[in-house]
Structure to design on (189 residues):
């Protein structure tokens, strides 16, 4: 064996000193690392193409799952909002029907005044004001009860505001009726 040749520690094949790896088994003659060890180390490295593609695939899959989840959550929130809006519309319809009778009575009162039936208009105005005062008392009591029962937030804010709007509308109709009553008294005398 010449000085320019050395033996592979694994397979004992002659390897020239200028070569780094054994041609037969792939052993690194200078470091003593086998070819299989080098492959395993490369596969474990984060820069290995196999792991890089898996990482990209995992990120794309994760992004897709997040996208689907976000869409689902968005749709559920829209359905809740739509459900609340439908409930509010139904309540408004009931409220309009409820106040329509008072507005119609006020319009009848205007018709009586226009027809110069002042005595009938006076009686109708006083009856309407009495009825409105009764309803205002009932609504105000339900508001007081709702606020006193609301220690733990059991009464919804929407219901409270709905009742406050009812009080405002009833007071408005009452004020208009009282104004008509003043007109009736001036014209009737």
């Amino acid at each position: 064996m010449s000085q320019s040749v050395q033996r592979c520690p694994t397979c004992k094949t002659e390897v020239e000193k200028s070569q780094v790896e054994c041609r037969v088994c792939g052993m690194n003659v200078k470091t003593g690392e086998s070819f299989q060890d080098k492959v395993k180390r490369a596969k474990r490295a984060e820069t290995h193409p196999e792991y890089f593609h898996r990482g990209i695939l995992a990120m794309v899959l994760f992004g897709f799952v997040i996208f689907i989840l976000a869409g689902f959550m968005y749709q559920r929130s829209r359905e809740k909002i739509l459900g609340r809006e439908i409930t509010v519309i139904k309540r408004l319809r009931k409220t309009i029907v409820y106040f329509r009778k008072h507005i119609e009575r006020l319009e009848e009162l205007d018709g009586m005044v226009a027809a110069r039936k002042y005595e009938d208009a006076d009686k109708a105005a006083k009856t309407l004001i009495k009825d409105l005062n009764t309803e205002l008392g009932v609504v105000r009591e339900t508001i007081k009860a709702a606020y006193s029962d609301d220690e733990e937030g059991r009464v919804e804010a929407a219901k409270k505001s709905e009742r406050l709007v009812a009080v405002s509308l009833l007071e408005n109709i009452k004020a208009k009726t009282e104004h008509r009553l003043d007109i009736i008294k001036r014209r009737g005398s």
User: Anything to note?
Assistant: The chain is about 75% helix and 5% strand.
